[in-house]
Write a sequence for this structure.
């Protein structure tokens, strides 16, 4: 094979584009190299070897004309004043140090750019520019010209992300840490032998100081626990936050009483330590994948603006202004934004993302086309027959996109444990209190009651889940399985039914199995075929081109592509026709084939045909085999039954394979399963699964490129890691076991603590040792064991 | 022993200074992106064109204004 491209590193094949003895795979890459070279930005290639990204279609044309619309501009800009504009773009292509360098040196490419800053984890670039020197549209076209294509969608326009909660938790951790260190220092002399010899003045001073410092900790840093405890009580659920809030309150009141009445220094160090650990747990749990989006709806798939025809004039219009009856123009590779009727032109619509069907569908004037399809080929004119919001697909989405009710989110393992835990702790506290009352020692009774609440405060218990699941999530993420939140692990664990989509999920979305039937072409003939299919963008041509080894002739004559029929061309004066049976052989196909066939005609005869078949993803068989025993497996697809015989043995039972299902059917099927008491895990890939993914208990999306559009889901799995799917699902069982063992450890510490507490012996020093030790040991056990087990089991 | 009162006061002051610095760092967004700066510092300074380019100095002014604005907001 040829040399790697200087810009993007891809194989250049046998006919690389040459420039000063450097090889490029395409003119696009060469152009970028030239731009950078001219502006002295060659350092780009020194930071990382072959850093560039390869983008297939390069023609921008009027694609970004909508950015001249004032309304869109103001919504896109973060800030605009006196000729200075600031804007933030999400660029999925950012992937290496060179990208950061180049994007931060944009000002060398264009004077209008003042400065730009990259946020690598979020794959964002923040650009400040002079609006008199470069317009927003030109700025984006500049980015596109160097292959960094910003993602501009409706969804992005509507909401600007806010990250204040992340900052808030950091602030709280900082404040609590500060207080913890100081209070520990003041309380330390007490714990040393001879600590009671400390002068009362000092003791009083330290006490008041600690109390003062801990006020912000209790009333600001731990406010979330009180609020959520109250909120869950409203739903009649005893959440884990309730005993925590009780514990914090007991700690603070007991300490405040001791300091004010000058009987001791209280437990304020334990209090600060407890909240510090809890907050760290929260922070660890809340760390997510910043550049991934799990909550995309149709808005992030659809374009921002479309071309509308008004009085025979084409005008770029915002999508939200499009109404029923409008005439719109859709060009090559553009999306159809609303259900419409084809007026003019030859529709060749790729519904691959909507229905999973990999081949474009042919449409004639008068036919109805559905929103979400992508036009391939010539320009078409459409008449909108339904508003964007009421189109078939968007409707499916709108009706089902419902936020899970708060109360059902609380029904998880930790809160289930908390219910019993809290009741038992309260009973012990009351019983112990009454015991001391009965003995006539009122003050000890009160002390014992609060001590029990203090020592039973489930700090270690509450940290088990964040650290076990947080570590599991990180291990998964390292291997290409990205969870939306940590609690998805529990949902995956609970699932007893797995529903697969077919096309794109268990089959490769590209890369079909191609076989030649007939008289095998020799090397020279293969070269002819390859030369012709190279010129077509049809998915089958592209697939065929990729599958054929060997060389091709760069130039062909009289090339013609007839939509839905085939290709024709003269290569070295030899006629080559490739396409459907009707086009190549002149006869209609006898049998309506189950697989797709592409016939080949060279010179004077038909050689035979290529048979295209969907190819199942690697490891599918073993995954299904491994999951069969513990899960109910279902397959639901929009395709026909052609592959039923092949799939039947892989899935259990006869009724579990469903063909010819619409997106709506899929959604209802999942709903029905849930009504029958099943916990459903849905695995899909496209827009057609969006409804099903949403109503399922847990939805996993398989994505070739995780940063590109994928429907709303709970987890995204890189398609290259598909063969590990069963291991991920089964690893959630391991995680749950670790959680159970950690619960055991924290209960063990609780029992020790309670035995001190009921006897009225809970000295501050006991609490100060017991609480951190229990938390640290649980955290260490959970993170270490998950890391080790993940290394062993996820291979 | 009463020097302890003074020392404790001093201790709180110093630690409080660090706390304030931390709060400032969080609020000004220094923890938003903990990866990119680590790469950025490794790039060599990039020189292009002449130093006296008027547009460059204009831009420098804007950058200064920018940072002032930021500190005003917070």
């Amino acid at each position: 094979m040829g040399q790697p491209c200087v810009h993007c590193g891809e194989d250049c094949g046998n006919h690389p584009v040459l420039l000063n003895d450097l090889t490029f795979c395409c003119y696009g890459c060469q152009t970028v190299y030239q731009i950078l070279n001219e502006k002295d930005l060659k350092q780009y290639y020194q930071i990382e070897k072959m850093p560039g990204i390869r983008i297939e279609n390069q023609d921008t044309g009027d694609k970004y004309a909508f950015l001249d619309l004032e309304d869109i501009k103001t919504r896109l800009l973060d800030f605009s004043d006196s000729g200075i504009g600031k804007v933030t773009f999400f660029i999925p292509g950012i992937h290496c140090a060179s990208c950061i360098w180049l994007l931060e040196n944009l000002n060398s490419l264009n004077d209008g750019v003042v400065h730009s800053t990259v946020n690598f984890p979020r794959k964002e670039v923040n650009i400040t520019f002079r609006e008199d020197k470069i317009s927003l549209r030109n700025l984006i076209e500049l980015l596109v010209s160097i292959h960094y294509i910003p993602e501009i969608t409706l969804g992005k326009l509507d909401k600007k992300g806010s990250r204040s909660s992340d900052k808030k938790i950091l602030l709280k951790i900082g404040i609590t840490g500060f207080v913890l260190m100081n209070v520990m220092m003041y309380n330390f002399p007490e714990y040393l032998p001879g600590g009671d010899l400390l002068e009362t003045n000092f003791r009083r001073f330290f006490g008041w100081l600690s109390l003062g410092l801990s006020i912000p900790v209790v009333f600001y840093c731990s406010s979330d626990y009180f609020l959520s405890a109250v909120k869950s009580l409203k739903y009649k659920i005893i959440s884990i936050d309730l005993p925590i809030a009780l514990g914090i309150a007991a700690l603070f009141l007991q300490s405040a009483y001791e300091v004010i009445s000058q009987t001791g220094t209280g437990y304020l160090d334990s209090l600060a330590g407890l909240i510090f650990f809890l907050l760290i747990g929260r922070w660890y749990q809340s760390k997510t994948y910043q550049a991934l989006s799990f909550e995309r709806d149709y808005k992030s798939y659809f374009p921002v603006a479309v071309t509308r025809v008004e009085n025979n004039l084409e005008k770029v219009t915002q999508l939200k202004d499009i109404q029923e009856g409008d005439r719109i123009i859709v060009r090559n590779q553009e999306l159809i934004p609303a259900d419409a009727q084809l007026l003019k032109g030859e529709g060749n619509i790729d519904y691959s993302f909507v229905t999973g069907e990999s081949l474009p569908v042919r449409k004639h004037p008068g036919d109805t086309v559905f929103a979400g399809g992508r036009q391939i080929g010539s320009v078409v004119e459409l008449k909108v027959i339904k508003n964007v919001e009421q189109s078939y697909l968007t409707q499916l989405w709108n009706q089902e996109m419902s936020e899970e009710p708060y109360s059902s989110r609380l029904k998880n393992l930790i809160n289930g444990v908390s219910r019993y835990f809290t009741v038992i702790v309260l009973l012990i506290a009351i019983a112990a209190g009454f015991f001391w009352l009965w003995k006539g020692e009122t003050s000890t009774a009160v002390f014992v009651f609060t001590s029990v609440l203090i020592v039973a405060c489930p700090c270690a218990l509450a940290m088990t889940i964040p650290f076990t699941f947080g570590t599991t999530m990180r291990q998964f993420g390292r291997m290409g399985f990205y969870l939306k939140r940590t609690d998805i692990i529990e949902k995956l664990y609970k699932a007893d039914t797995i529903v697969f989509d077919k096309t794109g999920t268990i089959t490769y979305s590209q890369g079909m199995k191609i076989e030649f039937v007939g008289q095998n072409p020799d090397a020279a003939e293969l070269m002819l075929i390859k030369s012709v299919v190279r010129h077509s963008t049809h998915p089958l041509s592209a697939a065929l081109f990729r599958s054929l080894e060997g060389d091709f002739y760069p130039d062909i004559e009289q090339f013609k592509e007839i939509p839905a029929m085939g290709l024709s061309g003269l290569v070295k004066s030899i006629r080559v026709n490739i396409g459907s049976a009707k086009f190549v052989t002149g006869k209609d196909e006898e049998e309506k084939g189950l697989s797709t066939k592409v016939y080949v005609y060279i010179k004077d005869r038909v050689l035979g045909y290529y048979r295209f078949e969907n190819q199942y993803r690697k490891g599918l068989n073993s995954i299904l085999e491994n999951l069969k025993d513990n899960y109910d497996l279902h397959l639901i697809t929009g395709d026909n039954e052609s592959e039923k015989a092949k799939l039947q043995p892989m899935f259990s039972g006869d009724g579990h394979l469903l063909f010819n299902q619409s997106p709506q059917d899929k959604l209802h099927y999942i709903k029905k399963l849930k009504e029958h008491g099943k916990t459903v895990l849905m695995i899909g890939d496209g827009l057609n699964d969006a409804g099903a993914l949403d109503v399922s208990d847990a939805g996993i999306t398989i994505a070739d490129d995780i940063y590109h559009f994928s429907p709303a889901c709970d987890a995204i799995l890189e398609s290259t890691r598909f063969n590990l799917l069963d291991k991920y699902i089964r690893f959630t069982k391991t995680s749950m076991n670790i959680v159970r063992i950690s619960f055991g450890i924290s209960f063990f510490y609780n029992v020790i603590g309670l035995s001190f507490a009921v006897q009225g012996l809970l000295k501050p020093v006991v609490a100060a040792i017991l609480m951190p030790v229990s938390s640290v040991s649980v955290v260490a056990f959970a993170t270490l064991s998950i890391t080790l087990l993940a290394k062993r089991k996820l291979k | 022993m009463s020097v302890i009162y003074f020392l404790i006061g001093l201790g709180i002051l110093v630690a409080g200074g660090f706390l304030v610095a931390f709060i400032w760092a969080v609020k000004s967004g220094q923890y938003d992106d903990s990866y990119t700066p680590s790469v950025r510092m490794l790039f060599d300074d990039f020189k292009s064109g002449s130093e006296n380019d008027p547009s460059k100095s204009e831009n420098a002014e804007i950058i200064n204004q920018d940072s002032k604005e930021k500190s005003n907001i917070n």
Q: What stands out?
A: Chain A touches chain B at residues 39-40, 43, 47, 84, 97, 100-101, 104-105, 107-108, 111, 114-115, 117-122, 128, 130, 163, 167, 170-171, 174-175, 178, 181-182, 185-186, 199, 202, 205, 209 (CB under 8 Å).
